[in-house]
Amino acid sequence: IRVNNIGPSxxxxxxxxxxxxxxxxxxxxxxxxxxxxRTYTWTRSRxxxxxxxxxxxxxxxxxxxxxxxxxxxxxxx
Length: 77
Known about the structure:
Helix content is 0%, strand content 34%. A three-stranded antiparallel sheet has the order 2-1-3, with no helix packed on it. The chain is rod-shaped. The protein is built from no helices and seven strands.
């Protein structure tokens, strides 16, 4: 994020900076924030993330027991 501290256009620049090298003249600050994606999986396997069965268990309309592994990937802007 680029912030202009002096001049008529003082304040946060509305468009984010893409990846690369930037020159920050006097009166300008550039702040870096980490951007990453996290994934959490609810799984039956005891070798992934947790040793307990975290899979989702449910029944269909005939009473057949089913289980599903569910994964969610998210990131914060």
